[in-house]
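Here is one chain, start to finish.
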Amino acid sequence: EIRPRIDGFIKDIYVDEGAIVKKGQSLFKIDSPLAEQSLTSAKASVESAKAQVSTAKTNVERLEPLAEKGIISDVQLKTAKDAYQTALAVQAQAEAALKNARATVDWTNVSSPVDGLVGAIPFRQGSLVNSSNILTTVANTSNVFAYFSLNEKELSMFLDNLEGSTQAEKIKNIPEIAMTLADGTAYEHPGKIETITGSVNSATGSAGFRAVFPNEQGKLRSGMSGKISIPRSVENVIVVPQKATYSQQNKTLIYLVQGDSVIQRAISVIPTPDSKSYVVTEGLQTGDRIVTEGVATLSQGKKISIE
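Its structure:
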């Protein structure tokens, strides 16, 4: 989030929404009359302090020979030297105030803290803004995080199939993952799971994952959605075509052949990478016969003819 560090009016906007910017590049110019006035005042204070130092120094240099000759007392010379030291201290304070004033004026130039992509710009030239206003966002999109979750059962199965004695070791052994974009196309670069939350969300019953995908071409944008595929090796399992299944009340079902009719059977499945089949983890046994064609025309108990 890009926020101004001082109050003022937006004088200039140097970028547009969606622009790619570099770290340190100017984004906005804030017009802050108060900051300019403070800088002018601070400069004047420094000049005044320098004049006081010069006067005090000259006075010391004038009195030193007189003190050596006994024309004036040592107390008078000490008083002059003390005045000189006080003038130096005042000058140092004035220079510190000037440094702060210059820093404040520098804040009128709002620059990007990172390389990235400019988000929405809700303000325009002339808008009055302060530090509570978000002028825009700059997202570093060279690498993009993808967040997803697994429920408790899926999480246990997932972790049980990974090598390692601790969660950190298991995460290191997770193979690269793939992502399918919202338009159905496969993202060309594989990603890597970096973290798994240490607890299960009591409201959703799921644990959160964070994966990172390279994004040098800028194809991925913040807020996009997609489908994550995690490779998994399984042996001695039943695989059914997806066209043989249908969904009902958040369940995956198939039609099981019993004699000359069919019955519905709920199954637990894992999609295969080609999105054409399911690995059945629960609900079917070796030897069961299912309907693979014309599923949409069937219903519970309907008579069929087996070809």
